[in-house]
Write a structure and sequence with these properties.
The chain has 240 residues and is mainly alpha-helical. It contains seven helices and two strands, in the order ββααααααα. Helix 4 (108-130) packs antiparallel against helix 6. It is globular, with a radius of gyration of 22 Å. It starts with 8 loop residues before the first strand and ends with a helix.
Length: 240
């Protein structure tokens, strides 16, 4: 029983290895890129639209709604990043219906790379919303003593994202493999559907957590703007 697709080696030359994680990751990215190009090449603004465009609009609006419910009132700037995270993890699980395919999210290297993307995106969007000085100052709130703890929190939650996704995906794969080994003629279809459901849930959880972290980084500026607007509004009423 394989615990991770890293164990499947297709080619090796000295230190360099071409394993299933790398191959299936690039195949998945290629399929997503080509699929996005094919679906969006004939978009229409008329009332008559294709089924693919209707499906695409449903997916996009659903993702936007989830982002806005997390706390980002303007979801469009974050749609590309968070939507790509969700679609990649979801597609990695859905493709398990193909024989011989190994989901790259079953490798700790892949989940760590996804978590590092979130780790970089949080300060990127935070600085874009607040500005560099204000964002750096947020690490020292409410007092300077909190600086090391806030930094440790950023690193620890990144590790937690990677380990959580890897552990959930690996455990689901192991359970399915064990059940299929014990009862190969009874549970194969049921366990495959269960694995697909688990993958979709993990894609949703990972994307929502990423949105929560980004929303927390962008929240300070919006709170400050609200306070300033309230003060200006009070000044208007005070003036004769």
């Amino acid at each position: 029983m394989r615990l991770t697709p890293d164990e499947i080696i297709f080619w090796q030359y000295g230190f360099f290895k071409l394993n299933a994680t790398i191959v299936f990751t690039w195949m998945l990215m290629f399929l997503l890129a080509v699929g996005a190009k094919l679906i969006t090449r004939h978009l229409s603004t008329d009332l008559t639209r294709s089924r693919w465009q209707n499906l695409l609009e449903i997916i996009v609006t659903t993702i936007e709604k989830q982002i806005s419910e997390v706390g980002l009132s303007q979801p469009r700037p974050y749609l590309g990043f968070l939507g790509t995270l969700f679609l990649f993890i979801a597609a990695a699980s859905l493709c398990t219906i193909f024989p011989g395919y190994e989901p790259p999210t079953g490798s700790l290297s892949t989940t760590a790379a996804l978590s590092l993307c979130v780790f970089v995106a949080v300060p990127f969007y935070g600085i874009a919303e607040q500005g560099l000085p204000e964002y750096l100052h947020s690490y020292m709130k409410p007092t300077l003593i909190m600086l090391p703890f806030n930094i440790i929190s950023e690193i620890s939650r990144t590790l937690a994202l990677a380990i959580r996704l890897f552990g959930n995906m690996m455990s689901g794969t192991m359970i399915i493999a064990i059940l299929l080994t014990i009862t190969p003629f009874i549970f194969p279809i049921l366990m495959t559907l269960l694995g697909l459901l688990t993958g979709m849930v993990q894609a949703y959880i990972f994307s929502i957590l990423a949105a929560v972290y980004i929303a927390a980084a962008a929240q300070v500026r919006k709170t400050r703007q609200k306070v300033d607007n309230d003060r200006n509004h009070q000044h208007v009423h005070i003036l004769p």
